[in-house]
Amino acid sequence: MTPHAWILLLLFLALLFALAGPLGRYMAGVMEGQNRVLRFGAPLESLIYRVCGIQREKEMGWLSYAVALILFNGLGALVVYGLQRLQQWLPLNPQGMANVSPDSAFNTALSFVTNTNWQGYSGESTMGYLVQMLGLTVQNFLSAATGIVVVIALIRGFARHTAATIGNLWVDLTRVTLYVLLPLSLLFALFLVNQGAIQNFEGYKTITTLEVTHYDNPKVDAAGQPVKDEKGNPVTEPASTQTQTLPMGPVASQEAIKMLGTNGGGFFNANSAHPYENPTPLSNFVQMLSIFLIPAALCLVFGRMVGDIRQGWAVLAAMTLMFVVMAVAAMHFENQANPLLTTLGVDAGSGNLEGKETRFGIADSGLFATITTLASCGAVNAMHDSFMPLGGFVPLWNMMLGEVVFGGVGSGLYGMLVFAVMAVFVAGLMIGRTPEYLGKKIEAFEMKMVSIAILVTPLLVLIGTALAVRAADGIAGIANPGAHGFSEILYAFTSAANNNGSAFAGLSANTPFYNVATAIAMWFGRFGVIVPVLALAGSLAAKKRLAATGGTMPTHGPLFVILLIGTVLLVGALNYVPALALGPVIEHLTLFAAH
Amino acid sequence: MTQKKLALFDPVLIKPAILESFRKLDPRVQWRNPVMFVVYVGSFLTTLLWVQALEGQGEAPPGFILAVSLWLWFTVLFANFAEALAEGRSKAQAASLRGLKKETWAKKLPSPQDTEHWQALPATDLRKGDFVIVHTGEIIPADGEVVQGIASVDESAITGESAPVIRESGGDFSAVTGGTRVLSDWIVVRVTVNPGETFVDRMIAMVENAKRQKTPNEIALTILLVALTIVFLAVTVTLLPYSMFSVEAAKLGTPVSITVLVALLVCLIPTTIAGLLSAIGVAGMSRMMQANVIATSGRAVEAAGDVDILLLDKTGTITLGNRQAAAFLPAEGVSEAELADAAQLASLADETPEGRSIVVLAKQKFNLRSRDIHALNASFVHFSAQTRMSGVDLGEREIRKGAADAIRRRVESLGGSFPPALARTVQEVSRRGSTPLVVADGARVLGTIELKDIVKGGIKERFSELRRMGIRTIMITGDNHLTAAAIAAEAGVDDFLAEATPEAKLALIRQHQAEGRLVAMTGDGTNDAPALAQADVAVAMNTGTQAAKEAGNMVDLDSNPTKLIEVVETGKQMLMTRGSLTTFSIANDVAKYFAIIPAAFVTTYPQLGALNIMHLASPASAILSAVIFNALIIVLLIPLALKGVAYQPLGAAVLLRRNLLVYGLGGLVAPFAGIKLIDLGLAAVGLI
Question: What is this model's ipTM?
Answer without folding.
Answer: 0.90
